[in-house]
Amino acid sequence: MEWGMKNRLARLIQKDGKALFLPVDHGYFQGPTHKLEKPGETIEPLLPYADAIMLTRGVLRNCVDPKNTKPVILRVSGGASVVGENLANEGLITSITEILRVNASAVSMSVFIGSKYEHQSLLNLTKLVDSCEDYGIPVMAVTAVGRELEKRKARYLALCCRIAAELGARVVKTYYCEQEFHKVVEGCPVPVVIAGGPKVDSEKEVFEFVYDGLQQGAIGVNLGRNIWQTEYPVGMIRAIRAIIHENYTPKEAQNLFEQIRAEKA
Questions:
Q1: FRET partner for 15 with CA separation of 20 to 30 A, picked from 81, 115, 117, 161?
Q2: Angle value at C-alpha 92, between 96 and 189, nearest 5 degrees
């Protein structure tokens, strides 16, 4: 692995081998998502606690201070929306020139394995990898399921992650599953980070699945809505960061969250 690739991965994955990525790219297919109507206001208080931020070029240019030194994971796939025929009908929407122009540390794109557009999304991934490898830019593949949430089973997720790694992704983002998640990680030869998906009912649920995913081999998380759609997003990201980088248990993370909430009250 050449110096540039190693350097960019080192910005994303910290010295302890762990990572906390903050995605705020939801508007590219959902529009003004709840609590993300004004992305700049959502991002600003959370940035100090994230290891990297994942977003589109439009939000990066218009809502993030260029003096920001946090690594950027640039979302480069899109072309479908929640009101369209099929969320899986995506294409590459950003050129390698633009990726370099905004100084991205990595790029991300979705792959929809098992969908009508499986072939298209996998070829998109290989084209992106080809372009980015020339410039030492890591690609993070996102194992997306669209509206088919029932696909979040270990066998399916392991298939998706392995295929993405085989095609050249340097990191894979996938969903956590309660049963046999370790098989998903063990079958993927590149680092795995956990996606959050729709907001869950309690902070405790988030702390537990993050902790359990780490115990089963994930290097960290890529959580958005379960952080910035909560009532106390700074408390959430700080508690999750403590699980990832300070080995907090879910109970310890809950105590930290409640302490921060009490200070804000």
A1: 161
A2: 80
pLDDT above 70 for 149: no
Residue 120 lies in a domain: yes
Q: Which residues contact 214 (CB under 8 A, 6 or more apart)?
A: 18, 220, 243, 244
Query: Strand, coil or helix: what is 69?
Result: coil
CA distance 248 to 224: 20
3-class secondary-structure state, position 48 = helix
Residue 148 has pLDDT above 80, yes or no: no
Whether pLDDT at 245 is above 70:
yes
- Is 145 domain-assigned? yes
**Of the candidates 231, 222, 205, 209, the residue with the CA atom closest to the CA atom of residue 34:** 231
CATH code (residue 43)? 3.20.20.70
Q: Report the predicted TM-score, pTM, of the whole model to 2 decimal places.
A: 0.95
Strand 72-75 relative to strand 106-111, pairing: parallel
| Neighbour-count burial of 66, counting CB atoms closer than 10 A to its CB (0-12 exposed, 13-18 middle, 19+ buried) | exposed
- Where b means 16+ CB within 10 Å and e means fewer, 251-262 reads ebbbebbeebbe
Catalytic residues: 173
